[in-house]
């Protein structure tokens, strides 16, 4: 009996969460895939009609805007947040006296919800209230910073707010990475008289590969699921210039009673996530097997 | 001691449940949770309770009803629909097609709804010939609001054609006043658009374009002219309009920063709440052109089990269309009664204009549903049109391209 328990207990303990994941993650993915092949409007229907929703999706200019925005926002957000985070981490790594205080200050935006961040930046960037009005008030009448209300530039305001929110977190990740590099190697390099920037670029940063990977994965999924920041900062506007796939899906499912269309956009979003995560998982698994 | 208390409680519970069988029950899902709206619903609750009914309130605020619709979807899929739900326009028929709406024709016939409701509004309340919803109010969309003082100072009268409006706007711009207070949200862009479209296309053209979705009308020269006028409207708006809420735009008219606003008659509530007097401090007039665009709030009745709930449903429907509720509710909400035989003595001058125009346009067939507020079209089609309107308004797309995009978007939304 004990022997039987010993072999089966782990399976029994894991079974509930396994079943939960099976139903609530993979089950619902399958359900969404099914619904995306139907003509569901207000309520889900289950007669399969083929790829009509995907055809509609790819014919919609608003979806094009949303996908373009995702690539602009995703690329800029990930690159700028990583570069800024690394820079901050390296500067903090110089064994300065007030490190604890500064680290907390930089990390603090992470404690705010995206809604708060979005609302605060909406006011800061509003031409009539924020930066533009302030600088003009100082006497620089010609100063203009109206990205928030400019359909071509509005997406970059979302990048600004998102970078402000997340770069402190990336800094913390990198700082931990920098600290985990063996002191001895660095000391040896210093004894050899190698300049500090060379120590960073040739020794420390190359040994932080896994940290870069985790930072990238965290930021990438933040970018793809971005929703609340857009809603609070621009509401998808001006027009639908700052729509992202997530806000598109929400509008279709909950405002317009077009569930089939929402499901097809959700499937495309999932494929984008797969395109990023699968190569990562593949490389991870292969590294373990080696 | 505990035992007796328990016995007493259970005896009371048995009594209460006995009473409940005889009592009309209604669970009402709505999203009227702010100021005047909440007061307006409370009126209905009191009236329902005074007739011996038990009202279970289910307010779901947020997202202009999106949150409530999500709650409704969950309830319907679970097979436990509320008694009555705040729904409007073609959404009623859409739910009917899902097979979940109840038939309240007996109440409607007994109370003679067909005689007291304008025909085009009554048609929204019917599902394949049977009554399935009860109308609460009529909001007019095609209003133009103005600051009386600003107009007088610049020697401008209320415009009756779009040319006059453009001339007035340019004069105001030269005088340093913002001609049009507007908030850059998609639904507000759509509101201005449909007022312009009604004026330029005329009632018949509007019906063809936004009710029948006639492809020829959607791509006609008239529609190009509508987009041309929208481009002009864009230039009359201040630079900082993006994302502004409608009530902030109304405040701009109130304090003289801007001269005009095109908005439904809920804007009147803002003026009145600030102590402004219609005709003296602010002016109300229909936007240039003929016709009347309405937005009618209503309660759709869902299939429910149990006699007490059915009784509640019937009582609720009767009260909603009853004279007293129609009057008190609309005084609180700023709209006008849906039934035409309510005395309007306590209403203000704008409401009188609205009621007169409604009766006149009901007679000559220019009483039309608002597309921007979900009365004319289903969500997917209305949304597709709004996407084009707001994209055009917020960029430099040419009118000819916009018309082409409009036709494609409508075809793609089917």
Automatic annotation (TrEMBL), chain A:
SUPFAM superfamilies: MetI-like. The chain crosses the membrane at residues 12-34, 70-92, 104-124, 153-178, 199-224, 259-282. It comes from the Bacteria. It is a multi-pass membrane protein. Pfam families: BPD_transp_1. Residues 67-280 form the ABC transmembrane type-1 domain. It is found in: Cell membrane. The keyword Transcription does not apply. Keywords: Cell membrane, Membrane, Transmembrane, Transmembrane helix, Transport. Belongs to the binding-protein-dependent transport system permease family. PANTHER family: ABC TRANSPORTER PERMEASE PROTEIN. This is Sugar ABC transporter permease. It comes from Aliiroseovarius zhejiangensis.
Automatic annotation (TrEMBL), chain B:
Its main location: periplasm. Keywords: Signal, Transport. Residues 1-22 form the signal peptide. The keyword Magnesium does not apply. It is found in: Periplasm. Belongs to the bacterial solute-binding protein 1 family. Part of a binding-protein-dependent transport system for a sugar. This is Probable sugar-binding periplasmic protein.
